What does this fold into?
Amino acid sequence: MKTSDLPSLIPCSPVYDGWEPKDIRGGYSSDLLSDVMSKAKDGYVLVTIQAHKNTVAVASMLGLAAVVLCNDRPVPPDMVEAARDEGIPLFSTPQTQFEVSGRLWTALRGDAP
Amino acid sequence: MPFVRADLHNHSCLSPCGSLDLSPAVLARRARELGLDLVALTDHNCARNAPAFRDRARREGLAALYGVEATSAEEAHVLVLFAASEDALAFSEFLEAHLPPLLYDTRLLGDQAVVDAQDKILDLPEFYLGAALDLGWDEVCAEADRRGALVIPAHIDRPAYGALAQLGFLPAGPYAAVEALRPQVRGEARGYPVVSGSDAHYPEHVGRRPFGIELPGDWRSGDGTVRLEILRDALAAGLARPYWETGSRP
It folds into this structure.
């Protein structure tokens, strides 16, 4: 599955356009970025409500495939700018972390080793 | 230059998690008994006990700052400090409009008492003051800075509600200093001056983690008000010594 497949899997929309689709290898759901830094891995989708530019920095550092921002959290402009600079796809959804994680997990189960 | 013993992070009975026994009067009295010179009152998202603290601090001969410990949308805590209680109250009013209307149960969450200088209860706010504001970290810090406050990220190294845990690392900001619980061994403070603070919630917490700072003789104006810019400059000049450097816990 690729990041470009996310909008067909969950009701979400890309926060900006023009990013390169990446392969999704897994997912992690958390709002504590220190926890994300220690648990999320290369190619994971981060499911979170933590709408801050630091989330993009952490995603870039870990090589995450995308960030899905839940609950229609407002996305600060400097976060969008950072995501564009770092090439991290950002998605916004009205769904909760529980709903998004459930759908992602179900879809990725077939891909999982 | 006078060596000032300062503690810029203290709660009172207005904080839901603060003891009802820690009124502004008790905070001022304990601080004076412990030999502190400069003390701030920083209840969660609300400064409505600032007037009572101002009166009692004056009576005890303490220099005081007034402010809040704000909870940003990311659930990270930041201290916002003013020299005038009126400015703290105005900022508090601004924050109040950004608090969510959460159900509040004093039995589970604790009392939130606005009191006067004689410990008489004036009001019991019916919305939860410990909640996260709908303002992001950068917005809270920028607004506080715009109003001339000292902005100090609180207990950055605390596993809960500290900037490092919530945000992974400290974002750049208009900080006069950062408050830490222990020496920042890996440079997490990113070069900002480091202070310690008691984060007192009970009378016995007052003065447990003060810091020392050298300030020029005119750090207080004639009426006793703290000259915030002098304090800001001294912090920037690296003159603050957290309690682990001074070894001076009361």
Summary: The longest strand of chain A covers residues 44-48. Helices of chain A lie at 6-9, 33-39, 53-62, 77-86, 97-109.
